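Amino Acid Chain and Its Fold in Token Form
===========================================
Purpose: to set a sequence beside its fold so the mapping can be learned.
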Amino acid sequence: MFHRIRVGEVTVPVTAWILALLCFLTPPAVRAAAADGCEAKYGSGARVLTVATGSPGELGLLKALADAFTSLENSTLCWVKAGTGESLDLLRAGKVDVIMVHSPEGERKAVDEGWAAQRTLIGSNEFFIVGPPGDPAKVSGAKSAADAYTRIAKAHARFFSRGDDSGTHRKEMEIWRMAHLSPSGDWYVVTNAYMMATLRRANSEQGYFMTDSSTWAAAVRELSGLTILFRGDPFIVNTYHALRRPGGSAAAELAGRFIVFVSSPDGQRIIREFGRDRYGEGLYNDAEYARRFVR
């Protein structure tokens, strides 16, 4: 019997005896962190807030927000690393308190069905289609994201898909539908990995990939095999919302306070300025900027 576990940024099948061996060799503190589902914890207060998100956690934005919030609220924030689709599933199952995601249709459905509340716009970034500088599919001449994908498919140029029901994967599939295409074949590579891991694989294997601008800015210095080939289609601007579990429990109340903080002037300043000191530019736009792209 095979079990599926996440190793770094990919999911792999393992047999039961290998799983037992891994548990035996893993230090107790690491096993404890894995057992509670937290990729990382910030703060040391008694009250615990569980937040599921993907790239904002990978890049450190969630930590910056958590450091300020947990100090104000004497709390601890547990980051559950999950893409948008998985984050929505976790919230629906009541396994997390807050999610930070980018799937407007899925978010509205969650609120309409009553298992999410307080949907609040918190910021944005955008998607870039990146690829090898030689650009064999001539993506740089595309007029839209759908046109770019059509060129890639016609050329059978290697394209990397996360394939994980993340917000990025959901947007990718929307674009394929707009292009009236169903991608398949050796040229279409599904990684089942997070953004950074897939971007690095596209770099090493010289393929196309749709990455968010935040991850690109953070990683561009190590991506000598890729360049931005298409950007600017309003359809691939990426708006982020925070949502929480409904109800009036203590956990839901703390979750609501976190969303209020993230959308407050102090929280928005953190989002707007995040990354500027390290990368020379902010990695995310604030909600005021994002509002013009809300669909």
